[in-house]
Amino acid sequence: MGESQAGKTAEARQEVVTVLYLAGLGDGAVRLPDGQIVHVAGALPGETVRIEETRKGSWQLQAVLEAAPERVSPPCPLAETCGGCALQHMRTDALLDWKVQRATRALLSAGFDAVPQATTFQVAPHSRRRADLAVKRGATSMLIGLHERGTKTIVDMSTCLVLDPEILALLPTLRTVLHSLQAIRREASLHINLLETGPDILLVTDAPLSAADRIRLAQMAEDYAIPRISWASTSNPEATETATQRAPVAQSIAGHTVTPPPGGFLQASATSEQAIQNAVMAALPTKMARRASVVELYAGCGTLTFPMAQRCQVSAYEGYASAWNALKAASGTARITAHHRDLNRQPVMAKELAQASAVVLDPPHAGARSQMEQIVRGLPTQVVYVSCNPAALSKDTALLAKAGYRLHAVTVIDQFLWSAETETVCDFRRESSRRSHSGPSRSG
């Protein structure tokens, strides 16, 4: 084959197109000449861009020919490779507007005729207090960071504009210490929660901890004032054990001291947690009758339970045993009843939900279909839904729309800065023939 023919064969297909909109992962959606819609990372709506096909059906941005006014230079030097931030090339105010649009479209698609103007909140850089990082053994040190988008390649996290600086400052030490551990043969994962008592670390490895490993971790905990380091095997990551503990582990929530489980879920930042709490509490009546009760579903360690218990009785349900134990241990009050229950397999039934002054739920990313079916059978007067996934929000709340609920208020919280993740708090209410002074106020 001649050189010119070989070059022609290897030449990649390119197109000049206009970006139509941002898709769910933050990629620009474009229409090819054949009518096919494809997604291109790094492109913004309204831009004219040149794109190149890297493999069949997969396209990448080659050049921005006409930039959108929302475009900025990514502030992080790792933005082009690290998979953690998909939208650093977009102004943060425009990013928040897009997230409001995502939530609004989801709710309109669910069947609500009108969506109220959203209350909004956006976190500041360097505020994220939890990190879930990949670890891979190198020749002289450990790679610790996030995967390059769409690959298994780990981008070593030398800097980060999202994480709290205290977490970032730990990474050089962790690279050195983890490299010395026999428990990591090839790969591991690292989960860090920055609690009020300091960093809480869970290490999940592909081999068991040796006695020498435990001594090394204990010394690191002492040197860097780390209260607890826990461990689990990649073959059974749920079975955690304490590798070393030098001090109590604690986090306060609305006046209650909680001991989160190793790797336990926390909202991304303290300020976004407060914003979610504020939105939920604003949805509930300011004054509730002495015996008023709220059923809370997917309660976790009590992020919403404890603030709500200052105003009413709370019957809180959580399926993850470690989180439920933490919630129960911290409750210490007759105003909270903590139940351990897998809500996907055994949802709280309509009869109990019908008696509640309100139902508050913060389900996982996939949503709460089984539980929503019981809610629309019980028809409580008010449902407050906290969502981290607009697609699941739309599917779940379509049941509320069909059951006659009206959308009273929406709050959109950008707690995952420069990502496509969208947090929404929605207040749904319905007129009911059952009048109760303990229930929430009705909307017209």
UniProtKB/TrEMBL annotation:
Binding residue positions for S-adenosyl-L-methionine: Q267, Y298, E318, D362
Entry keywords, A to Z: 4Fe-4S, Iron, Iron-sulfur, Metal-binding, Methyltransferase, S-adenosyl-L-methionine, Transferase
Active-site residues per Swiss-Prot or TrEMBL entry: C388 (nucleophile)
Alphabetical list of Pfam families matching this protein: tRNA_U5-meth_tr
Record Gene3D superfamilies: 2.40.50.1070, Nucleic acid-binding proteins, Vaccinia Virus protein VP39
Domain of life: Bacteria
GO molecular function terms attached to this record: 4 iron, 4 sulfur cluster binding; rRNA (uridine-C5-)-methyltransferase activity
Parts of the chain that traverse the membrane: none
Keyword Transferase appears in the UniProt entry: yes
Gene Ontology terms describing biological process: rRNA base methylation
Signal peptide: none
PANTHER family hit by this protein: 23S RRNA (URACIL(1939)-C(5))-METHYLTRANSFERASE RLMD, RNA M5U METHYLTRANSFERASE
Annotated family: Belongs to the class I-like SAM-binding methyltransferase superfamily. RNA M5U methyltransferase family.
Protein name, per record: RNA methyltransferase
